[in-house]
Design brief:
mainly beta
Length: 180
């Protein structure tokens, strides 16, 4: 048994996540912009080949600016801006863009304890190209072949969806004086 187990030298697992959302805190929690007293700006880009000649590109921009009380030196809120773009590349099959603005406020509830409240407004736009889209209706079972010139057989009327969304969140946290 030991010989057969040691014969495996190359183990493969599922590829990493293509999105960069996990590196953009404002995407998943609008109140996070008020937690830190340091301004930050980040831009991330990831281009991944998902198939021969098919690349998936993802861009993420995240900016956070704290609002600090000049008398106490304590943060009472924050402003945030984020931009996400996802593009399926040459296939033009999918493109998604999100632009968001966040405002948050810190409520001091006890010694070194806060509740941060955040609200966020997003503009989202998703587009797909219908030119290279295929469906199961193009499979001709009687002839046992796929015909890309056959009709899609799907009621797709729009290839672009744009909308505004609002998000809100609250977070309780405390400041550890030994690390600040």
């Amino acid at each position: 048994i030991l010989t057969s187990v040691s014969g495996f030298t190359n183990l493969c697992a599922q590829d990493y996540v293509y999105a960069l959302n996990q590196f953009t805190p404002l995407v998943y929690h609008p109140s996070s912009v008020a937690v830190d007293n340091e301004a930050s700006v980040s831009f991330l880009n990831r281009k991944t080949q998902v198939g021969p000649g098919i690349n998936y590109q993802n861009n993420a921009f995240n900016a956070e600016y704290p609002m600090i009380d000049s008398k106490t030196g304590r943060g009472f809120g924050g402003l945030g801006l984020h931009f996400l773009q996802k593009d399926a590349g040459n296939s033009d099959l999918l493109e998604s863009v999100t632009l968001g603005l966040t405002v948050a406020y810190n409520l001091h509830i006890a010694n070194d304890q806060f509740i941060s409240f955040g609200i966020q407004s997003n503009y989202n736009s998703t587009r797909t190209s219908l030119e290279r889209l295929t469906s199961g209706s193009q499979w001709l079972a009687a002839e046992f072949r796929f015909d890309p010139s056959a009709p899609l057989g799907e009621p797709i009327a729009e290839n672009r969806i744009s909308y505004f969304s609002m998000n809100a969140g609250a977070m309780w946290y405390l400041i550890d004086k030994s690390t600040h």
